[in-house]
Prior knowledge:
- The protein is 37% helix and 25% strand.
- The protein has helices spanning 3-13, 45-55, 58-67, 115-120, 137-151, 186-193, 209-220, 234-243, 250-260, 289-296, 303-308, 318-327, 333-339; strands spanning 18-22, 28-31, 34-37, 69-75, 81-89, 92-100, 125-130, 155-160, 173-178, 200-203, 224-229, 261-271, 278-286.
- The longest helix has 15 residues, at 137-151.
- It is globular.
Amino acid sequence: MNYLERLLELTERYRASDLHITYGSSPKIRVNKELVSLSEGVIDDDLLFELYNGFVSDKHKRTYEEMGDCDFAHTSRSGTRYRVNAFRQKGKYAFALRRLNATIPTLEELSLPATLADLCMKEQGLIIVTGPTGSGKSTSLASMIDIINRKKRGHIITIEDPIEYLHQHRSCIVNQRELGEDTISFSKSLRAALREDPDVILVGEMRDLETITTALVAAETGHLVFSTLHTMGSAKTIDRIVDVFPPDQQQQIRVQLANVLISVVSQRLLPNAQHNGLVPALEIMIANNAIRNLIREGKTHQINNMIQTNAGLGMRTFNQYLTQMNQSGKIDRETFERFFMD
């Protein structure tokens, strides 16, 4: 067994979410958000060189040499898939590997509310799942896409960097495109998707003005579009989208976004009550007429109050969700007080 496979076996044995390999340190795995050292010795240049040449393809090496980092997927000997980022630090190789589940978990298994399943039944519009890195956005989206795949009949296109969960063709056809392998950018692939007769489009991330523009057009023209942003909260998400555009276009974008937005789901992972696992805490905003008017008028600072007073529609502020988790025993009082937002 080579060095990498030994590390991946340990990652899987301890059910770690991530593996970190960098010069001058022992390999580290992330277990329940905490980094833990593996007793595999300190990593030196020879090991890094061996790893780089052993599992980075020639195509990704060219990207790495040009850009200083690259993303790709890797499958271990056991069949477990990983999302890999190879990057340069202090002139040396470094690797961060995220372990991916072999099967797509259900919303129930993820402790996510049935409201998200209801959103999947919409025919067209934009659904954005947000949160910091490592908050489970991709897993939540995979679960939602799987619901559509089982319950609807249509064509699903995903554009990912890299592909994380492999979807089978069920009631739907699912075509998955990976940046660097199947397409060169989110924006170009998204434009092409509009000519490929899709019903549902998943855009891994709305990174730039062109991607956001095309995603809004896709949602306007009869498609159900899913995407992510690294924001926390509906108001900040809407502001981030609008602020990408030049000032003279921002009012037009507010109107366009108000017309197509279905929901913003913001999530983060918190320690469970037993502190032996993680559970998601959410803010759920569902765009009703009142919220659409706030978006058009640029009054996003009032959205949180609107969410708070519309719990009957399935909306929740982060604090409301946190309170519910504490009362149901999913998190303890210490976690509740630590993350409750004033």
